[in-house]
Amino acid sequence: MYSQASGPDHGSAHGVDALPAFTGLKEQAGAFAARHIGPTAQDQAAMLRVVGAASLDELTDQTLPASIRAQHPTDIGEGWSETEVLARLRDLAGQNTVLTSLIGQGYYGTILPAVIARNILENPAWYTAYTPYQPEISQGRLEALLNFQTMVTELTGLDIANASLLDEATAAAEGMALARRVATSRATAFFVDADCHPQTIAVLKTRAEPMGFTLVVGNPETDLKEDEVFGALFQYPGTSGRIADPKAAIAALHAAGAIAVMAADPLALTLLASPGELGADIAVGSTQRFGVPMGFGGPHAAYMAVRDAYKRSMPGRLVGVSVDSAGRPAYRLALQTREQHIRREKATSNICTAQVLLAVIAGMYAVYHGPDGLKAIARRVHGLGVTLAAGLRALGVAVVAQPFFDTLSIEAGAAAPDVLARARKAGLNLRDAGGGRIGISLDETSTAQTVQAVWSAFCTEPDRVAQMAAGLPAPACGLPAGLVRQSAFMRQAVFSSCRSETDMLRYLRRLSDQDLALDRTMIPLGSCTMKLNATVEMLPITWPGFCDLHPFAPADQTRGYQTLLADLERWLCAISGYDTVSFQPNSGAQGEYAGLLAIRAYHRARGQSGRTVCLIPASAHGTNPASAQMAGMKVVVVKCDTQGNIDLEDMRAKVAAHAADLAAVMITYPSTHGVFEENMRAICDLVHEAGGQVYVDGANLNAQVGLARPADYGGDVSHFNLHKTFCIPHGGGGPGMGPIGVRAHLAPYLPTNPADAAAGLAVSAAPFGSASILPISWAYIRLMGDAGLRRATQVAILNANYIVSRLAGDYPVLYRGAQGRVAHECILDLRPIKDSTGVSVDDMAKRLVDYGFHAPTVSFPVAGTFMIEPTESEGKAELDRFCDAMLAIREEVRAIERGEVTAEGSVLRHAPHTGAALGAAEWAHPYSRQQACFPPGVRPATKYWPPVGRIDNAHGDKNLVCSCPDIAEWME
Ligand SMILES: *Cc1c(COP(=O)(O)O)cnc(C)c1O
């Protein structure tokens, strides 16, 4: 472990400035805030002049309705320096005790190859990227995700895999929901093998109930009645370590029109017959042990693979291969991209932010090791397990006789507490499986010493242990003969092309060089808050004290985390006005789901189970209706008026019509239209008077922190997208965290410990979701302090209004607040351009690539528009560069309007332009190469070159290819 230096004395060091003349003695308060916030004080003054406001405070007053302004300061204190924050986090990490974890239960020690740690996990080119909706600037990460999908299909023996899901337990729940969608059986029950991980069973229970499914937990050999279920889930190997053969059960399920889902360990699959070979229709699991630290619960990528027939019903994001404008193969998201926005409450799931960065890491772990390397790791782990079991038996320990891969079950009886305690003393956490049962899971990090230490925990006579060890025969294979894998896997070139570190390093670099992330340009995505992810915030997440803890480690080993969680809860409450926070939801959409479940439980506890209607404005993010549907609610859409505001009359009418069955309203505030609606308080009052609860979608909190608090103006519950407002990087589409804040009356209905299936609700596998990325948000809040947070919000609003002021003359701004201001984002209406010239939003978005920009959000929440959110982190120079590009593009459109060129022949229609096009002998366009590739403001020396031209989405969806194609296929 690293140094345990204690932090500075924060009780007295802050707020006291006894010697103001000697500021050199102490780092300047607010110094970090000035680095986080892009525009300098001087720039802010200049920008305020452009927007026509006298001061930031005046602009704030013009933007936020007085009725919602916060009455309380956030009371977080002064911002700390980077040095102080690191010292305190070191101290907290030091208060966590890292033992060797042999707990298993879905979480294992693993070795993240240093070349991947440094060049992906710690590399902003990967972690600051956005979800690859703009495929031309995302080819690197899309290729990495295709590797992940290929790895999963190869290991599982199924046809198609997504990239990715949030954790194994939620993936299993998605598998259950998918089974219901595709099964021909009309049954409403789902069977779960009792040997599944307890957290998986807990999440399935939670998910099943509102969807009207009965969950039957039992032994597949004796309790499965295939005619009475639409599907069944088997764990492979089981949580007890047991490897059972599900073939017969699967055949029986199929005969009854039911679906078989297997939760399978990817490392075990290198040695065991694959789910596909056993007949399974769906496989799910966690890829955590492929190089991703346990992280006290996450983040890790879960996978889902399905038979070809079910690909169009699969949840999550799917990377596919298509072709670009020159016919070259090119990657892009296929089929389900943004499906919630299209299908809303009929969406297959509410998954939005997933675990992209972790999927990239797991996929690269497979590239690094290759199939033979993975098999060698698996064999070694299994061999150690066999030795461990033989030794324990020789010592007279009751090892349960069952085929296993890496996990032993021991009947220790009354001796269990002593054994567990002795193991802990020796630095090992074993699993207390209850009832005198102990679980021991070995992993990639296990050694002969680990095995020795376990023996010694069971036998206190060192001589006997030594004697026994000397007499052990060499380990034999303990896998069941009928289930040993015969099939080869991962024979695609990528899995054997990077055997040296040089090759690996250059492969990773080549991929990231193809992409645009925040380390190269602003990413002005509305609603996604692509702000700075400061390096200092990122440093702690790879410290062993934060990343090497098992989520179910004993509480006395996780004191540092407990303090960190308590701090973060207190601060999020201060910022939002809520009373309690649950950290279990591991994405914003999961937060929505957890919050709605709490509302549902609250109504039921008050004898009002008839309250099932959820009112959602038409402008809502697609995850809102999808989550409401999952929570068993009926979605009723409320209209928006021409100003983009919730239509108050329609809201009144719908509240009145549903006075008896109104459960909740879900409102994004400020709205997805980028304005603070004046009526927010009135709407919340209206809903409360009718007995409903108010869910405020907190994705747009970046426009409110320090200025307004959802609980003050009427919210009962909100999620906080920590990967938006609170600086967790997007990672190319995840990880994220979506903790929810609730008012006190909802606190009893928050999620409980998922390891305790009897306890209550569980929305994700780990008690605190993706805990290991929480230090990022902790650091951000602590660095900024009250003044910094408030200033960040004000500048976020300034930056958005500055863009409006610079662009409004050329692009109509669709919605504004009562005093003509936008909140932290704005919508530019490009439909008039389309109508007059035929130039589409896509043409505009792709042309921005030629100027070196990532496009804004396209066609959400209004089709044919750009939604732009600059965030406070972008400085004036970058905002000007963006505005200049937008204005230059407007001039290119004007040339079409004047009839000088056609839309078809224009530089817009053929964007983005590649280096290959520039260098080709032929140039068939009426515009010059110079105009295409080096428009105003783009310098040849620093130009970003997209690796492919515009990608044909329809072609890819018609010819769906979602794993690494053969070289031969590409040649055709
Ligand atoms: C991002 C977002 C969500 C969903 O959050 P995830 O973390 O992606 O699941 C919900 N609502 C709004 C308005 C958002 O912008």
TrEMBL record:
<dbReference type="GO" id="GO:0016829">
    <property type="term" value="F:lyase activity"/>
</dbReference>
<comment type="function">
    <text>The glycine cleavage system catalyzes the degradation of glycine. The P protein binds the alpha-amino group of glycine through its pyridoxal phosphate cofactor; CO(2) is released and the remaining methylamine moiety is then transferred to the lipoamide cofactor of the H protein.</text>
</comment>
<dbReference type="GO" id="GO:0005829">
    <property type="term" value="C:cytosol"/>
</dbReference>
<dbReference type="InterPro" id="IPR003437">
    <property type="entry name" value="GcvP"/>
</dbReference>
<feature type="domain" description="Aromatic amino acid beta-eliminating lyase/threonine aldolase">
    <location>
        <begin position="557"/>
        <end position="704"/>
    </location>
</feature>
<dbReference type="InterPro" id="IPR015424">
    <property type="entry name" value="PyrdxlP-dep_Trfase"/>
</dbReference>
<feature type="domain" description="Glycine cleavage system P-protein N-terminal">
    <location>
        <begin position="35"/>
        <end position="458"/>
    </location>
</feature>
<dbReference type="GO" id="GO:0016594">
    <property type="term" value="F:glycine binding"/>
</dbReference>
<dbReference type="InterPro" id="IPR015421">
    <property type="entry name" value="PyrdxlP-dep_Trfase_major"/>
</dbReference>
<dbReference type="GO" id="GO:0019464">
    <property type="term" value="P:glycine decarboxylation via glycine cleavage system"/>
</dbReference>
<dbReference type="InterPro" id="IPR015422">
    <property type="entry name" value="PyrdxlP-dep_Trfase_small"/>
</dbReference>
<comment type="similarity">
    <text>Belongs to the GcvP family.</text>
</comment>
<dbReference type="Pfam" id="PF01212">
    <property type="entry name" value="Beta_elim_lyase"/>
</dbReference>
<dbReference type="GO" id="GO:0004375">
    <property type="term" value="F:glycine dehydrogenase (decarboxylating) activity"/>
</dbReference>
<dbReference type="Pfam" id="PF21478">
    <property type="entry name" value="GcvP2_C"/>
</dbReference>
<dbReference type="InterPro" id="IPR001597">
    <property type="entry name" value="ArAA_b-elim_lyase/Thr_aldolase"/>
</dbReference>
<comment type="subunit">
    <text>Homotetramer.</text>
</comment>
<keyword id="KW-0663">Pyridoxal phosphate</keyword>
<feature type="modified residue" description="N6-(pyridoxal phosphate)lysine">
    <location>
        <position position="724"/>
    </location>
</feature>
<protein>
    <recommendedName>
        <fullName>Glycine dehydrogenase (decarboxylating)</fullName>
        <ecNumber>1.4.4.2</ecNumber>
    </recommendedName>
</protein>
<dbReference type="InterPro" id="IPR049316">
    <property type="entry name" value="GDC-P_C"/>
</dbReference>
<dbReference type="GO" id="GO:0030170">
    <property type="term" value="F:pyridoxal phosphate binding"/>
</dbReference>
<comment type="subunit">
    <text>The glycine cleavage system is composed of four proteins: P, T, L and H.</text>
</comment>
<dbReference type="InterPro" id="IPR049315">
    <property type="entry name" value="GDC-P_N"/>
</dbReference>
<dbReference type="GO" id="GO:0005960">
    <property type="term" value="C:glycine cleavage complex"/>
</dbReference>
<dbReference type="Pfam" id="PF02347">
    <property type="entry name" value="GDC-P"/>
</dbReference>
<feature type="domain" description="Glycine dehydrogenase C-terminal">
    <location>
        <begin position="792"/>
        <end position="913"/>
    </location>
</feature>
<keyword id="KW-0560">Oxidoreductase</keyword>
<dbReference type="InterPro" id="IPR020581">
    <property type="entry name" value="GDC_P"/>
</dbReference>
